[in-house]
Amino acid sequence: ARRARVALLARGERGLEAAAADVERGGGTALAIPTDVADFDQVDAAAERAEKELGPIDVWVNVAFTSVFAPFGEIGPDEFRRVTEVSYLGYVHGTMAALNRMKPRDHGTVVQVGSALAYRGIPLQSAYCGAKHAIQGFNESLRCELLHEGSHVRTTMVQLPAVNTPQFSWVLSRLPHHAQPVPPIYQPEVAARAVLHAADHPRRREYWVGGSTAGTLVANAVAPGLLDRYLAKTGFGSQQTGAPRPAGQPANLWAPADRETDFGAHGEFDAKATPRSFQLWASRHHGFLAAGGGALAATALALWRRARS
User: Fold this and answer.
1) If DSSP states are collapsed to H, E and C, what string results for 124-158?
2) Cβ count near 230 (within 10 Å)
3) To 5 degrees, how large is the angle CA 278–CA 167–CA 2?
């Protein structure tokens, strides 16, 4: 509906082609650029091509992902490094390429797609949690620098809950059973709406999506030690289904799983996933809720005083 011009960067050619077709069907213009975000030169070249063919970049969204589902002791150093290069440095490279073009114009927005795991690590995802924590710290530093400079370039972060994407069917896993997102699970459209809202309203430093995200962040701030013990008991089983891990499951760590086949936006958990998030609505309308809460409190106080008089 917005007729946006969208450049798409990823390694898998079939996945890119399908995503580009989705953009075109929605009335936009798509440019698919095969890119490994772990390589800054590729990212910078993609940004250059995007500006040449589509015009100045207004919004840059970082959402690169790869991981290893396994206890820390079962992850090799090369595997840990690769997760870091994609899931953390991919964000750094994208942000560098974007700011190199936005800052001279003093205009633009960078949206970092984060996770509740940026604040709270969980078992079996040490490499990914480390990357998300790194993104959080990196983005906070960058935001302070942009504010200090008086720049009109904005950066914001969207902290997501568990989302029903195909990643659980192609992640490198050494778990005995099929990997799954930690319930409650949300549909990809919830995440997409949150990212779009953040791009439109980047003055907020971050958005929390899903009640589980808010609950996790609050619990970790109040009782992190208790949460350690809770996750030690529940964090292993909650990330696996009852089905055995499929033999020959593809892994996207070193090569794209969607090079020849598009997996779509939805994973295998449509039956368990919810398409809405009240907490996202609350995050988007926090001013309205605060005003409403203040009005209710004022009314209650007035009634209490009247009852006493």
Assistant:
1) CCHHHHHHHHHHHHHHHHHHHHHHHHCCCEEEEEE
2) 12
3) 55
Average the pLDDT over 200-204 and give the result: 96
CATH topology of domain 5-276: Rossmann fold (3.40.50)
Domains in the chain: boundaries: 5-276
Q: Please tell me the predicted confidence (pLDDT) of residue 294.
A: 59
Residue 86 makes CB contacts below 8 A (sequence gap 6+) with: 37, 38, 64, 65, 66
Give pLDDT tens digits for 88-133: 999 999 999 999 999 999 999 999 999 999 999 999 999 999 999 9
To 10 degrees, what angle do helices 224-234 and 211-222 make?
A: 120
> What's the rounded mean pLDDT across residues 169-180?
97
Q: Closest Cα to residue 162, out of 142, 187, 144, 141?
A: 187
Strand 153-160, strand 240-244: pairing: unpaired
Stated pTM of the model: 0.90
Cβ-based neighbour number of residue 296 at 10 Å: 10
